[in-house]
Amino acid sequence: MLGLQGTVSNRSLQTIYHTHVVKNILTPRGVGRNDPLMNTILPEPFMLAPMAEITTPALRKTVKGFSPHVIMYSEMLSATALVHWGMCNDSLSSRHEFDDPIIYQILGDSPELMSRACELLSQNGGYAIDINMGCSAPEILNRGWGARLLQDFDKTRDIIRACRKAVPSRLSIKMRSGYQDHDIPLLLDFTRMFQDEGVDFIALHPRFAKLSFKRKADWSLIELVKKHVSIPVIGNGDIIDPVEAVAVLRSGICDGIMIGREAVKSPWIFQVCHALMSGESSTITIPVDKIFIEVLKNMQDMLPPEFHKTRAHRFCVYYSQNVAFAHDLFKKIRPLSSIEDMIPVVRDYFERNPHEAVKTYHIDNGTLHLANPGE
Ligand SMILES: Cc1cc2nc3c(=O)[nH]c(=O)nc-3n(C[C@H](O)[C@H](O)[C@H](O)COP(=O)(O)O)c2cc1C
User: Fold this and answer.
1) Are 55 and 43 a contacting pair, CB within 8 Å?
2) Domain-by-domain residue ranges, the chain?
3) Catalytic hit among 135, 163, 254, 316
4) Whose CA is nearest to atom 22 of ligand 1?
5) Mutation test of ligand 1: which of 13, 48, 51 has the most ligand atoms closer than 8 Å to its C-beta?
6) Of residues 133, 202, 198, 146, the one with CA closest to residue 168
7) What is the DSSP string of 55-108?
8) Which of 25, 59, 224, 330 is deepest in the core (most CB within 10 A)?
9) DSSP class of residue 148?
10) Which residues, at least 6 apart from 341, have a Cβ–Cβ distance to it below 8 Å?
């Protein structure tokens, strides 16, 4: 165990962002993937976070339409289901033409099942296989899966060893910063062990599991882990502003930025990030109404009917936040089970509120101005 004592002070994304803005790190340097800051292992610094019932092929297709290079994750896939019920070719785990680069995330606690799941998923030829050590849902933790692995160092090492042997491409970990509380020595021991066992990169959501989404993500822990290991570290948690995302990336605190909830609300966020990285002036116009309907139609096309209600509702909760009367809009969608019935509700909302149908981002010399032309 490392001899580190005590804790570092909690530094939210806002604190880190403002520190670095003061240092003028917003000055554009290089262009996106060719940026000299970019670590060679990662082909791209921005990632769409894995989100159960959300990062379906339907959302991934739309995200890719805006940002062809962004790295995307599947929903978490149970190793047990993959191995015992042969779910490798179903709608959650199959690979589409736009799924490049795609990372398949697996969930479980058995080295045997997880390594077998890795072998099966590797046949899809994705960019990497990721081990879920971040999920904090009680039903997952009770099974010993997700962030619960952070309570068993030796078992986790066995899992990584078995999976490393089974994955010919890249192996990654998506983790919380602890289980019951922040334990910095343990976090550093885990991340060093990942590196020693051949993990290619780590994505860290710096809230301990028992916090779920309470308090702010503690980005000082990302900085700490980045200094501790030599493999790339991806920072994740609470990013809602593309300017912040680019500033944090340029600060060198981490090697990549993963965005979850905000990317469901704004599937175009990575395009805005890339535009900011380029340092060039540009205008990005988003048809908010059409994208709403596009994702719902993608679900109709790509997901089996039994998934429509759950996946559409999950997406609508986040995406509705683009409009002023989000609560009213979702209240009308919630009782509906079929996407066919949801689409007219969405159309009706924007017909009554046409000024909310389009968002325009003006990017100029690293600054961002958002305007809804109808306002
Ligand atoms: C609805 C939902 C589902 C999620 N499912 C997963 C998951 O399957 N695997 C995982 O590693 N993290 C999952 N997460 C956590 C996200 O990947 C991410 O770490 C978290 O939302 C923090 O990032 P954000 O603040 O950008 O949203 C989920 C989060 C949400 C909101």
Assistant:
1) no
2) 13-279, 286-356
3) 135
4) 237
5) 51
6) 198
7) S-HHHHHHHHHH-TT-EEEEEEEEHHHHHHS-GGGSTTT---TT--SEEEEEE-
8) 59
9) G
10) none
- Which has the closest alpha carbon to 51: 267, 227, 361, 357? 267
Rounded Cα distance, 289 and 308, in Å: 19
Cβ of 52 closer than 6 Å to ligand 1, yes or no, is yes
| 261 CB within 6 A, ligand 1 | yes
Q: Is the CB of 76 under 6 A from ligand 1?
A: yes
In this prediction the ipTM stands at: 0.99
Amino acid at 99: D
Q: Determine how β-strand 282-287 pairs with β-strand 358-364.
A: antiparallel
Res 310: pLDDT = 96
Architecture in CATH for domain 13-279: Alpha-Beta Barrel (3.20)
Q: Is 118 considered catalytic here?
A: no
Average pLDDT over residues 18-41: 41
For the residues 353-364, what does the mean pLDDT come to? 96
Q: What is the pLDDT of residue 306?
A: 94
Packing angle between helix 184-196 and helix 153-166, nearest 10 degrees?
20
